[in-house]
Amino acid sequence: GEKVCHIVEEVTEDLELKKLDNKGTWRERKILYLAHLYRASFEAIMVCCADKIHNLTNMIQLTNKKESSRVWSQFNSPPEDRLWFYKEVTLCLQKKLNHPIVRELEKTFEEAEKVIPLKKNQGAIEKMTAVGHPFR
Fold it and tell me: Is the pLDDT at 104 greater than 90, yes or no?
């Protein structure tokens, strides 16, 4: 009960920020999430990893359908930003944990990079990653 609740809290982003402006606070929420992830427990990291694998797998499956542009219009951020976030999560988890589930996340992320449609300016991911976040 209480332990599970604590694990869920560790991998849940700040909902107060999300209420303020879902799209406008997207990047800020993700940076705070990453900072929190660096301090997360083993159990929380495992839950995070499984969640991100699931999310990426769903994105890959939706992207492979013919209506992928309609699918992406429902997200609060463009594909480039989402890939940036998942890349940062993957890098964080690689540093925190040597475990098969992290390798599965790496593999799933690499597959997502191949199929998720990006704008012509793919340099956006590199620019955002170069800026990174202050927690590495």
Answer: yes
